[in-house]
Each structure stands twice: as C-alpha cells, then as structure tokens.
Design goal:
Blueprint (H helix, E strand, L loop, with lengths): L1 H6 L3 H7 L3 E3 L14 H8 L3 H11 L17 E3 L39 H8 L1
Length: about 130
C-alpha cells in the first residue's frame, strides 16, 4: 500500500498504529463554497486541533472491534483519496510559508468504485 510504504510501516506497524489514522473519505465543499475554494478550507480544517480533540474524545475508552482492546486514541494522520487521480484541493496547503505541504501525494490505491450519475448526466458526459 503506498501510504504504508511512504511512512515506512510494516504489517505489524499498521496493525498497532492504524487506530490513530482518520480517513477523510470525502473531503470537499459544495456550492456556493466550492466556488470560493471552500474545499481547501475543509482540507485545512481536517487537521485542526479541534478535530484532533474531537477524535480523542469520541474514541477515548472505546474497545476496538477486532482486537477487543482499549486504546488511547490520538489522531496523528489524516488520509484521503481523490476519485479521479490528483485533486487541486490539496495543492499548496501549508501552515506557514516555510512548512512542508500538509497533504502529499504518496501514490495510487488499487480497487474500484462507481459514481452515481443519472442516465441523463451520464449521457451528457459520454457525448
């Protein structure tokens, strides 16, 4: 998996550390905010301390489903994917000018998904 290779995780690392990862499955903004680059604001908000605190609060004292263990939840990584490859939402997002980019492309995942378009919209896309 590209994420694990980028971080340097082994299978054992992933098993013990994945509990601290949030997958922002859908990350973006809807109109009218999308016209104002609202998706970039949402991507930045995903790493705010408030989100990290809410994550810790929600999962504090919970028992994991698979291992049936209680773990201390601390959000240390946010991952996301783009449905059509790379997305401009993540481009050039930094906390300060000197900082590394917040989001980095680390590769492509394998698998499939589908878009839910009406027949009319699909016909327009095809045309």
């Amino acid at each position: 998996m590209p994420r694990d290779e980028h971080i340097g995780w082994s299978v054992h690392d992933r098993e013990s550390r994945l509990y601290h990862v949030m997958d922002a499955y859908i990350l973006g903004a809807v109109p009218p905010y999308s016209f104002l680059l609202g998706g970039k604001a949402v991507a930045l908000a995903a790493i705010w301390d408030e989100v990290r605190q809410a994550f810790a609060s929600k999962y504090r004292g919970r028992t994991t489903v698979i291992e049936e263990k209680q773990k201390t939840a601390s959000l240390v990584l946010v991952t996301t994917t783009s449905a059509i490859g790379r997305s401009s939402i993540y481009n050039r997002l930094r906390i300060s000018e000197e900082a590394e980019p917040i989001y980095r492309s680390v590769g492509y995942s394998r698998g499939w998904s589908h878009f839910h378009f009406s027949d009319e919209v699909f016909g327009q896309l095809r045309d």
